Amino acid sequence: MPVSVDAQLSELSQAEFSKVSYEVMAEIFALHRELGRLFDEIVYKNTLKSRMDNIETEVEIKVSFRDFHKSYFMDVLASSGAVLELKAVDTLHQRHRSQLLNYLLLTELKHGKLVNLRPEMVQHEFINATQTLEERQLFNIQDSGWHSSIGFESTEKSLLIELIRDWGTGLERSLYEEALIHLIADQNLINNEVDVLLNGNVVATQPVLLCSPSTALKLTTFENNTDIYRKDLCQFLAKTPLKTIQWINISRGLIALETITK
């Protein structure tokens, strides 16, 4: 996978990670006591780096495919193999866990820790990446319910599959979508406003990713509940002038492509 990291990486065993994590967390707890809980993430991050020799901060991850390039920045890399993502938020959310898992999968490191310094007591959670890149590159394709449409034809479908074969499944939805928008930009894959119709009247407009004036593109990364979401998409489609939604769901072992029409 075309990923480069602006640091030397070393995969740590579970025992090695636990030791490094214990040492870093001891310093984080001390910082929390000394500084309090109201500072921004960068204050804790910079102070942590100044106190520990084995800490690198804002470590860049570069990911690419063809002429698409994107950079991520890991908050803390300890002992070349322990990734810590620092937050200063009211509470941790699933998007924070997904962010850290995304970093682990891109770097092919196994263990990380999510830390929140805003609460009265420091919140911290272990996040582990259980699949290798090779495992994430093995998936089935389900496309019996898909058919070609203007703006998302066989060429675009093949490009998407090639992208996922290269990167593997399990990454952030926004990364796949951003890459796809970039790669088929010449086909007018853009966000645009569409009318929302109720009883034949326009009640509002809604931004939608379009691959043609009458066709929307929806990319998701659900591991389950796809039947429920399919009903949601049908209901959405019925309340707009759109004729078709090209739906792509990227789960760990299955890429499902489906064309939803009125």
Beta-strand residue fraction: 25-35%
Biggest sheet layout: 6 strands, mixed
Q: Which topology of the largest domain does CATH recognise?
A: Trna Endonuclease, Chain: A, domain 1
Structural class comes to alpha+beta
Categorize the overall geometry.
elongated
Q: State the low-pLDDT regions, or none.
A: none
Q: How many domains comprise the coordinates?
A: 2
Residues in helices, as a percent range? 25-40%
Spatial order of the strands in the main sheet? 1-2-3-4-5-6
Number of helices: 7
CATH architecture of the largest domain: 3-Layer(aba) Sandwich
Q: Tally the beta strands.
A: 12
Report how far the terminal alpha carbons are from each other.
Answer: 39 Å
What can you tell me about this protein's structure?
The chain is of the alpha+beta class. The chain has helices spanning 14-35, 41-51, 94-107, 133-136, 154-167, 173-183, 226-238; strands at residues 3-5, 55-65, 68-78, 82-87, 111-116, 123-128, 140-145, 190-198, 201-212, 215-220, 244-250, 254-261. The chain folds into two domains: 3-130, 3-Layer(aba) Sandwich (Trna Endonuclease, Chain: A, domain 1); 134-261, no CATH class. It has seven helices and twelve strands. The protein has a six-stranded mixed β-sheet with strand order 1-2-3-4-5-6. The protein has a six-stranded mixed β-sheet with strand order 7-12-11-10-9-8, with helices on both faces. Strand 5 (111-116) and strand 6 form a beta hairpin. The two termini are 39 Å apart.
